[in-house]
Amino acid sequence: MVLDNLSTSLKNSLKKITSALFIDEKTVNELVQNIQRALLAADVNVQLVFDLTNKIKERFREEKPTKDQPKREFLIHIVYDELTSLLGKEKEEIKISQKKPFKIMLVGLLGSGKTTSAGKLANYYKKRNYKVATLGLDTFRPAARHQLKIVSDQVGVQCFINEQEKDPVKIYRNFENQYKNYDILIIDTAGRNALLQELIDELELINKAVQPDERLLIIPAELGQASRSQAEAFHNSVDITGIIITKMDGTAKAGGALSAAAVSDAKIKFIGVGERPNDLETFNPPNFVSRLLGMGDLEALLEKAREAISEEKSKDIEKRLLKGEFNLVDLYEQMQAMSKMGSLSKLLELVPGMSQLKLPKDVLDVHEDKLKHWKYSMNSMTKKELEEPEIIDGSRIRRISSGSGIPASEIRDLLKQYKMAKKMMSSIKGKDPEKLMRKFKGRIPGM
Ligand code: GDP
Ligand code: MG
User: Fold this and answer.
1) Confidence of residue 292 (pLDDT cuts 50, 70, 90)
2) pLDDT digits (tens, 9 = 90+) for 206-242
3) CA 64 to ligand 1 centroid distance, Å
4) Minimum-distance ligand to the CA of 146?
5) Residue 183: helix, strand or coil by DSSP?
6) What residue ranges define each of the domains in the chain, with the CATH number in brackets?
7) Which ligand has an atom closest to residue 116 CA?
């Protein structure tokens, strides 16, 4: 996960507490020192670190555990609480109003991840059943609008761009009569190397014309503690309403950016944890700290599982399964649903207890790669082959293999999986569907 080192050292410090014979001042001091070291290594500001650790000591001294609460649990609770405060306490969600469209504008310096985040946000809201479009107002970098078009196509949302026009406000006006057909409009803007007057002026003009409902500042995690002054500068000049910290996956110093941004006036709404459209998480300090401390993040897991497959669709597939009509297309849809949930290894991190199991990484990755390969090979099949996999013989396998670049043995594997699923299916035809589904769900690949 992000902030792996911090997570490991915090977990180790807490582990010592759980196994300590007594919880006295000495153990508390030791814990506090370990936490200090861990936070400083993650680039959290020295003053913030000392404030936090003093608070932990003070609360442990002055507050009383609730009845029956063991001292060590009381101490861990205080640590959890204080770390959560350090990162901003509550989740500050963006409330999408009924207004059409609800406009979210992204601002930030060059290379901070605005365009990538525009694609991620479009993907995020599209999955939540909003009709989303993007609008490219970065006329500063030549290829910027084309890049936005590519990420928008990738997640399947409308992208408004005009690659000739130099004036962002004119581009906005260009398409003005079409925006009302969308629930959410995500607006990508230009950056500069620093917050120059030129950029402020440009953003002010856009701001005035567009009147966005949310103005999100994009900050790359590697900016560390300087995130605070950057957030404050943008807040003063363009009145930002929230922050997205990107590239959390790329640095051990992300603690600096998170804690620094948390003390600025605008709060962190999302974090970017990779380059792909799915690599965006809502930022929820209590859950984030639970994960750092290894407590598992059930809520995030449920959220991902919910968006992966709509209920209607899964009902539909269930029905067809029971009639014995299950074909490769269905298997494919199941697999797509799985890939929407993000990578398996990332997903498992969210399951309480899973991260402790230390599943070997190659086990997870092989599984994931296999799914990807199956998907590629299915893309090389004809519609008839997908619907009636029985007709796929040796020569078809060779053709599919050379078309997709996937070894024939893996395609045979896929067909074997399919046959197994199908066989289970036909043995259950005509039985009580409710009972059967419960029994089979665990065994059908991808379900
Ligand atoms: P912009 O100039 O602000 O629009 O920045 P871009 O969206 O073009 O992103 C700059 C680079 O950062 C690209 O190579 C992105 O792939 C990369 N990037 C953006 N967000 C993330 C992230 O969360 N993690 C990682 N690893 N890379 C990211
Ligand atoms: Mg850009």
Assistant:
1) confident
2) 999 999 999 999 999 999 999 999 999 999 888 999 9
3) 47
4) 2
5) coil
6) 4-86 (1.20.120.140), 102-295 (3.40.50.300), 300-441 (1.10.260.30)
7) 1
